[in-house]
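A quick aside before the break. I want you to see a complete sequence-to-structure record at least once, exactly as it would be stored in a machine-readable document. Don't worry about memorizing anything.
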Amino acid sequence: MKVILEKFKGVFPALYACYDDTGEISRERTMSLCNYLYEKGVKGLYVGGSSGECIYQNLEERKATLKYASEAVKGKLTLIAHVGAPSTRESKILARYAAELGYDGLSAIPPIYFKLPESSIYNYWTEIIDSTDLPFFIYNIPQTTGYSLSLDLFKKMLANKKVKGVKNSSMPVLDIERFKRAGGDDIIVFNGPDEQYVAGRLMGADGGIGGTYGVMPELFLKAEEFVTSGSFKNARAIQGDINDIIIALTSFNGSMYSVIKEILKLKGMNLGSVRAPLEGVSGEDLNKVKDIKELIDSTILKWKKVK
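That is the input. The structure line, written in tokens, reads:
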């Protein structure tokens, strides 16, 4: 089992939604982004999650993204499909489709909108898990779902041998420590908040899945290198530089993902815009995008040769 879990350790960018100029899912742009991240040296991709704008896409669009990512890098990167959807039925359809495509693992947020008891959340995740033979990773993101994974439910879920961990995006690093302590070496805990990648790793996370990794993979790979080698002074310093960039990315009126896409466009990678009701970058904000790109580029150059 340790061999199986090993492929889930490391830096996993959360894949961005890639649209053509008419706003439809683009095969070419999805595959281009996947190959770009593969060439940067990341361990795997988390496909169809928050960064993939999944909540604003229909079932067929989500299946298309899963397919195109698989066509691009299956066998080269570890692929985790996020299959959380408004209904259990749709989630199971996505789960089975990901399994058919050869994905390495599944993940899902808890049900959203209605405030449900933990029994309903348990049943929802269990039905998804039982629909395939793939390992499953709970996605805990209380900021957007309104539900914070309890330790009791986590332990109950771990009784299912296909549950192999959690993508923890709650802000307290204590949660990472508690989840890792509950599962030990038999599970994977992914750090979710990009602002605390280093802290999450030091508190027990085995790697990370993040929405800003894709615009600066070099920096998160370098942070991972510092943590792994025990160079904690450099790890803290690069996390500070990463956080300066994240604060800049979130200082706009529009969606952070629209800012990221504008930066990637300046790097020669057009992923389209974002799906409404997310807002694109406009007006004077467009002038600030170049400054953030230059900040990212200079920060990457700064850390490139540091050991």
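Two observations worth writing down. Residues 33 and 269 are 8 Å apart (CA to CA). The first helix runs from residue 2 to 6. We'll return to this after the break.
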